[in-house]
Design goal:
This protein has eleven helices and 19 strands. By secondary structure, it is α+β, with helices and mostly antiparallel strands. The protein has three domains: 118 residues, 2-Layer Sandwich (Nucleotidyltransferase, domain 5); 89 residues, ATPase, nucleotide binding domain (Nucleotidyltransferase, domain 5); 71 residues, Actin, Chain A, domain 4. The strands form five sheets. A six-stranded mixed β-sheet has the order 3-2-1-9-10-19, with helices on both faces. Strands 13-12-11-17-18 form a five-stranded mixed β-sheet, with helices on both faces. β11 and β12 form a beta hairpin. It is flat and about 60 Å long. 47% of the residues are buried. The chain binds adenosine-5'-triphosphate and magnesium ion. The site of magnesium ion has 5 residues, from loops.
């Protein structure tokens, strides 16, 4: 079907992710991309916002007693309502002038598995942050649109969005979801797996941000061919004597640490395939699977998935931006995609 863009305004689309929040403005594209973190300062019993986004992320795991850095989203939904609202308000203020707020409409994407209560919390926080209307769009639909998949055609398309908190596997046809499943495994779980591997195997305690750095630098879903791969110097605390310690970790060790979360992602894809009606499953065998989200960038994850499922796997261009781009596109082409945007729940 032909899609006609809507007229320009400051209506926006928000990808309120567990790890990152992205804001898209109609007619402009993505204008903000920052970590979903809020830091509070408590003085004389009063709590004040100290930093939001990039600046607040630098404080995670490094705060003194009077400062608290919070990640308001967990598993793709709001875990701390007050902090989520502060964060959304801060980001909206950063990207648009106040005068243009009066008719502000915002579309936010939500995990497919979000409950009505969780959806209402997201909608409410956007309204409290200043929007007049808030529409919700299912994340797998947004991811598929953002990855450029032909979701309105009568063929089966599978998208796997691997975020910080969740992995959503969905099969889409004719512009809607035929099957979707959300598993609470994503980038955060991978970071935790690296922390716990080093604790168990090297008596070394590292912070979550060091684990994330290991994952994004040398992380891999498959054992390296030479059995060791690249190595990275790391620092942490020796659990035996409590002093700082420097050591190294190899790609083979990271692959071992990540084996369980990677397996859980493979299992979710297999289950989706088994639950998909046969004609649509045959389409997926022909067309392959599209990976989106930051977790899709894990080294060799596409290869590991191909080996386990036998399907051809592609990683979307701009995989970290797909959900925001897709939600933005839904805003631009709202007339044609009206049936998938929920305004009243
Ligand atoms: N090169 C990389 N290799 C592995 N993981 C990566 C890489 N780059 C980013 N990530 C991970 O991707 C995750 C963030 O992805 P994304 O922004 O898609 O999540 P999110 O949308 O905030 O979360 P969710 O969709 O679960 O709410 C983080 O855990 C981050 O560590
Ligand atoms: Mg996401």
């Amino acid at each position: 079907m032909a899609l006609i863009p809507g007229i320009f305004s400051s209506d926006m689309a928000i990808d309120l992710g567990t790890a990152n929040t992205l804001v898209y403005i109609r007619g402009k594209g993505i204008v903000l991309n920052e970590p979903s973190v809020v830091a509070y300062h408590t003085k004389d019993g009063k709590k004040q916002v100290l930093a939001v986004g990039e600046d607040a992320k630098l404080m995670l795991g490094r705060t003194p007693g009077s400062i608290e850095a919070i990640r308001p989203m967990r598993d793709g939904v709001i875990a701390d309502f007050e902090a989520a609202e502060e964060m959304i308000k801060h980001f909206i203020r950063k990207v648009i002038r106040r005068g243009t707020w009066t008719r502000l409409k915002i579309i936010v994407c939500v995990p497919h598995g979000a409950t009505p209560v969780e959806k209402r919390a997201i909608r409410q926080s956007v309204i409290s942050a200043g929007a007049k209307r808030a529409g919700l769009l299912s994340e797998p639909i947004a991811a598929a649109i953002g990855a450029g998949m032909p979701i309105t055609e009568p063929t089966g398309n599978m998208v796997v969005d691997i975020g910080g908190g969740t992995t959503e596997v969905a099969v889409l046809s004719l512009g809607d979801i035929v099957y979707a499943r959300s598993v609470r495994v994503g980038g955060d779980r991978m970071d935790e797996a690296i922390v716990s591997y080093l604790r168990r195997h090297q008596n070394l305690l590292i912070g979550d941000s060091t684990a994330e750095r290991i994952k994004t630098s040398i992380g891999t879903a498959r054992m390296p061919d030479d059995g060791r791969g690249a190595v990275m110097h790391i620092r942490g605390r020796d659990l035996l004597n409590g002093v700082p310690k420097e050591t190294e970790i190899s790609q083979a060790q990271v692959a071992e640490a990540l084996a369980e979360p990677v397996q859980q992602i493979c299992d979710a894809v297999m289950q989706a395939l088994e639950a998909t009606p046969p004609d649509l499953a045959a389409d997926i065998v022909d067309r392959g699977v599209m990976l989106t989200g930051g977790g899709a960038l894990l080294g060799d994850l596409d290869l590991a998935l191909r080996e386990q499922t036998g399907l051809s796997i592609s990683v979307a261009n701009e995989s970290l931006n797909c959900v925001a781009l897709g939600t933005g596109k839904a805003l631009e082409y709202e007339k044609q995609l009206r049936h998938v945007i929920e305004y009243d729940i």
